[in-house]
Amino acid sequence: MLSPAAEASDLLRHFGLSGSGGLDSRSPIDGAVIGSVDECTDVEGICAAAQAAFLAWRTVPAPRRGELVRLWGEELRREKTALARLVTLECGKILAEAEGEVQEMIDICDFAVGLSRQLYGLTIVSERPDHRMMEQWHPLGPVLVISAFNFPVAVFAWNAALALVCGNSVVWKPSEKTPLVAEAVLVLLRRAAERFGGVPETLVQVAQGGREVGEALADHSRMALVSATGSTRMGRELGPRVARRFGRVLLELGGNNAMIVAPSADLKLAERGILFSAVGTAGQRCTTLRRLIVHESIADQLVARVRELFAAVNIGDPREPGVLMGPLIDEAAWTSMQAVVPDAEQVEAVAGGVYVRPALVEVEWPDHRALNETFAPILYLVRYSELDQAIAINNGVRQGLSSSIFTTDLREAERFVSGVGSDCGIANVNIGPSGAEIGGAFGGEKETGGGRESGSDSWKAYMRRQTNTVNYGNDLPLAQGISFDP
Ligand code: UN1
After folding, report:
1. Beta strand residue intervals within 281-417, DSSP E
2. Phi first, then psi: what are they for 23, rounded to 5°?
3. Which residue from 177, 175, 171, 176 is spatially nearest to 189, judged by alpha carbons?
4. So where's the catalytic machinery, residue-wise (predicted)?
5. Could you tell me which of 215, 166, 221, 275 has the C-alpha nearest to residue 51?
6. What is the pLDDT of residue 349?
7. What would the mean pLDDT of 294-298 be, rounded to a whole number?
8. Is the ipTM beyond the 0.95 threshold?
9. d(CA 389, CA 251)
10. Active-site pick, 252, 271, 412, 453
């Protein structure tokens, strides 16, 4: 197997990228530098160019805009393997998951193409004679997308595919831990734009850098929408900054996702769900399963089984076939894991990378460690006796992204997804909390930030709503029956 640096250099060449600049990217596989990019130094210039591109792009009919996204999807299909390998090298998730991530980009492109002919508004009956009301959805303006290292390309695509069909330009501030994949995605967008012809050159721009670059962009009055994925701490800073200038925000922040395993659960299914949701992406998804709430009658059995599964997880170079879990993103992730699980086991894998064994920790509820999101593969286990108590534990955290229940009891399942059940944006039955499809709206409540991205009607966040009242009569009656005659 090539070293990450050697393989990255092949891939960068493949994408026509120089891989040089002032900001280094390291592979979590062995900690080595695998390339670098130029830092954004001209926020003002980027914002002005984004605005100019927006003014041109909004005049292109939406189904034509969809055509650009369709071509982008074709480029992604063609380069799925290469892009996935770069994702693996730069963020450390296994190849199967990296390919899944690129597939998620392709899926949202397909979704957005269909959407480009379905940006429907309502017609509304008027209370006045010879009047008609309607609602239209118009392009909004430049959209700033701030993305995280753990889904370094898919979350951008959720935002960009929708923003583009909605008639907006896009500025992307990727995580400083995954700058190279962003450059590769931009290459594929450029190829699509060339085939389309006549696309404003600055329709999609990448602004590389750290927090200061993100903040300067978010503060800029031209950024009509700031869609940010990351920690609750980041969102707490960013939200008020953007609100102060009355910009729009879409926040997708921390999760603290739970699974309830009821006495009637199909335990074989539950085990599979637990393994994927807790161990996938080395416990670094926003949807990662962090709390397992198990009925006391089956807890001993399930604990034993999960311990076995965790002990058997094949940990190592995420490019190796059979490996289920790659490295943590960096040393800092390991430090925060150790802070809550001091006896967490580090595994010898590739020198320079941080490879850990997933940890199962039994706690009494409430436990302060389990109230926080530690971005590492730690699964807390809590026992319960009554379903209401389990639902209260599910809801008893500050975050509200994803949740699930394993049960074959229809009443329990329906209760969990009802208005008095899970308080999360995502609530699943007999499926783990992670690995959502793009067709649904993605996001959650409370400290998760309240935003919804991806499918369903999430597109509405990327457009401005206009209410129109049209009078086709010869009179001017006022609403509410007001008479206003001199
Ligand atoms: C994220 O972790 O930010 O539902 C996104 C999932 C993936 C997306 C996760 N489809 O786990």
Report:
1. 289-295, 359-362, 378-384, 399-400, 402-406
2. -110, 120
3. 171
4. 252
5. 221
6. 87
7. 98
8. yes
9. 29
10. 252
The string of DSSP letters for 200-254 reads -TTSEEE---SHHHHHHHHH-TT--EEEEES-HHHHHHHHHHHHHTT-EEEEE--
pLDDT of residue 348: 87
Nearest to 54 by CA among 271, 259, 200: 200
Is it the case that residue 371 has pLDDT exceeding 90?
Answer: yes
Active site residue 271: no
Quote the ligand 1 centre to 117 CA distance (angstroms): 27
Residue in 12, 151, 40 with CA at minimum distance from that of residue 93 = 151
Q: Which amino acid is at 300?
A: D
150 lines ligand 1 (CB under 6 A): yes
Tens-place pLDDT, residues 183-204: 999 999 999 999 999 999 999 9
Find out whether 28 and 330 touch, Cβ atoms under 8 Å: yes
Q: State whether the beta carbon of 434 lies less than 6 angstroms from ligand 1.
A: yes
pLDDT digits (tens, 9 = 90+) for 308-349: 999 999 999 999 999 999 999 999 999 999 999 999 999 988
Instruction: Output the pTM of the full model.
Output: 0.98
Asked if the model's pLDDT at residue 372 lies above 90, the reply is yes
Q: What is the pLDDT of residues 139-190, one digit of tens each?
A: 999 999 999 999 999 999 999 999 999 999 999 999 999 999 999 999 999 9
Alpha-carbon distance 74 to 419, whole Å?
Answer: 41
Written as one string, the DSSP assignment of 282-297 is: GG-STT-EEEEEEEHH
Q: 372: closest CA among 255, 239, 253?
A: 255
Q: Is the peptide bond before 366 cis (omega within 30 degrees of 0)?
A: yes
Start-to-end C-alpha separation, the chain: 87
The finding on whether 402 has its CB within 6 A of some atom of ligand 1 is: no
**For a substitution probing ligand 1, which of 250, 442, 454, 458 has the most ligand atoms within 8 Å of its CB?**
442
Edge-first strand order for the sheet with 402-406 is: 359-362, 378-384, 289-295, 257-261, 402-406, 426-429
Calculate what percentage of the chain has a pLDDT beyond 90.
99
Residue 340 has a pLDDT of 96
